[in-house]
Specification:
Blueprint (H helix, E strand, L loop, with lengths): L1 H18 L7 E5 L3 H12 L3 E6 L5 H10 L4 E4 H7 L2 E3 L6 H7 L8 E4 L4 E3 L5 E3 L5 H8 L4 E4 L6 H5 L9 E6 L2 H13 L3 E4 L6 H16 L15 H5 L29
Parallel strand pairs: 1-2, 1-4, 2-3, 4-5, 5-8, 9-10
Antiparallel strand pairs: 6-7, 8-9
Helix pairs in contact: 2-3
Length: 270
């Protein structure tokens, strides 16, 4: 079994190397040095990207420790300067601090901005509840209209970024954005990390992704001994049922994002 797993890992590595040359020059700005931020930074640095962290206190022991643990030439500066340097800006920032932080980042025009956040609070019944009327990603897009906001990495635990094969199989990362090109670029990053990107459509679908994040929190708030990670299995059953009407997509026909293929083809029609 180990030989099979090793062979699969080698195959994935070859696929990643085939993608890397055209995109390796991107600088990744990680705004924040918390639990998810340090995981994203470390994985991206391992993949060969230049990583710069943005911190409110770049000279703090915490910020310096994250940079040292990341290695690979990573650095830390202010949040605003990191956003200026980054080609892709990640926002692993808690709410309600997100609004102040994002509004202070300066000009993000044209940049890909990745929002993994979940604006939630704990209800009187102990279960999570949302605290915004739309979604975190849509609010960020409103604060920076010329940025290309992508909702991603918001429905899994940080340990999945650290160890993508922890569960013995891929974990799905839903993506939503109004920019097809930005969504496809982030999908390649997801694929490089050994995860499974799935296109959820326009940015307003970030509300559904944040609902998945709320579901994810339930076993943690219950203090259960296990949690769950999302994995969407491919299925061709609808194609089989509606084959004669399946020649043209009904929605978003001119703007469908192309996702890297991380799964085996679905089973043929019965």
């Amino acid at each position: 079994m180990k030989r099979i797993i090793d062979a699969v890992a080698v195959g994935l590595l070859i696929a990643v190397i085939a993608i890397r040359p055209a995109i390796a020059e991107d600088t990744m700005a990680i705004i924040g040095t918390g639990d998810l931020g340090d995981s994203l930074g470390a994985r991206l640095a391992e993949l060969g990207y230049k990583v710069v962290y943005g911190s409110r206190t770049p000279q703090s022991d915490r910020a310096k420790a994250v940079v040292a643990a990341t290695g690979h030439g990573a650095s830390v500066t202010t949040q605003r300067e990191a956003a200026r340097l980054g080609d892709i800006v990640f926002l692993p920032i808690k709410w309600p601090e997100m609004e102040i932080a994002v509004k202070g980042l300066g000009d993000l025009n044209g940049k890909i901005v990745v929002d993994p956040s979940f604006p939630w609070g704990q209800g009187d019944d102990g279960y999570p509840q949302v605290t915004v009327s739309t979604s975190s990603a849509e609010l960020i897009q409103g604060w920076h209209p010329e940025a290309r906001v992508v909702k991603a990495f918001g429905s899994m635990g940080s340990m999945i970024i650290d160890y993508p094969h922890l569960l013995g199989g891929p974990v799905t990362i839903p993506l939503a954005s109004d920019s097809k090109e930005a969504k496809e670029r982030v999908a390649l990053l997801v694929h490089e990390m050994g995860l499974d990107p799935v296109d959820f459509g326009p940015l307003r679908m970030a509300r559904s992704i944040e609902a998945l994040a709320m579901i994810y929190m339930i076993p943690l708030l219950r203090h259960k001994d296990e949690e769950w990670e999302f994995y969407f299995r491919r299925n061709a059953d609808w194609v089989c049922r509606w084959e004669s009407d399946w020649s043209e997509p009904l929605y978003d026909a001119d703007n469908l994002a192309v996702m890297p293929d991380t799964q085996q083809p679905p089973k043929p029609c019965r």
